[in-house]
Design a protein that fits this description.
CATH architecture: Roll
Number of helices: 3
Distance between the termini: 30 Å
Structural class: alpha+beta
Number of strands: 8
Order of helices and strands: EHEEEHEHEEE
CATH topology: 2,3-Dihydroxybiphenyl 1,2-Dioxygenase, domain 1
Helix content: 10-25%
Largest sheet: 8 strands, mixed
Length: 141
């Protein structure tokens, strides 16, 4: 039986992120096939990647691609191929969730939440080995 969590629960799916080699081709395909409108884009030089995002309801669908052959997305694609990179959840209380996960020995990357540049939010990742092979990003204040 799964224990119900009262605090620090997932409020919504914040983003779904697809890692690809050729971002413009992938964006064009998703626009043509599914009517996505990629209205936002930004570079993340610290991670050697670029992002294009479309909104689906309250969720961002992001297509990310490497800007150099040695960045995290380039390594991900080299090791695993193109595809789902991660799912991000917005939480009601990030700190309580992190504390609860650490008590269960869930592997978090990094060990403490990191501030989101220019926003009053922080994030941390749950290692895929802890949650059935999917990289999960947790976001909260």
């Amino acid at each position: 039986m799964v224990k119900k969590i009262a605090e620090g629960k997932v409020e919504r799916i914040q983003e779904v992120v697809l890692a690809v080699k050729q971002q413009d081709e992938a964006v064009a395909l998703f626009e043509e096939l599914f009517g996505f409108e990629f209205k936002e884009s930004w570079d993340m030089p610290a991670y050697n990647m670029k992002v294009k995002a479309a909104k689906v309801g309250d969720t961002q669908f992001q297509i990310v691609s490497p800007t150099t052959p040695d960045g995290v997305i380039a390594k991900y694609i080299r090791d695993r191929g193109e595809g789902l990179h991660h799912i991000a959840f917005m939480l009601s209380d990030l700190d309580k969730t992190v504390t609860r996960l650490k008590k269960r020995n869930i592997n978090l990357i990094p060990e403490r939440p990191v501030p989101v540049e220019g926003k009053a939010l922080r994030y941390i990742f749950v290692h895929p080995k802890s949650v059935h092979g999917v990289l999960i990003e947790l976001i909260g204040e």
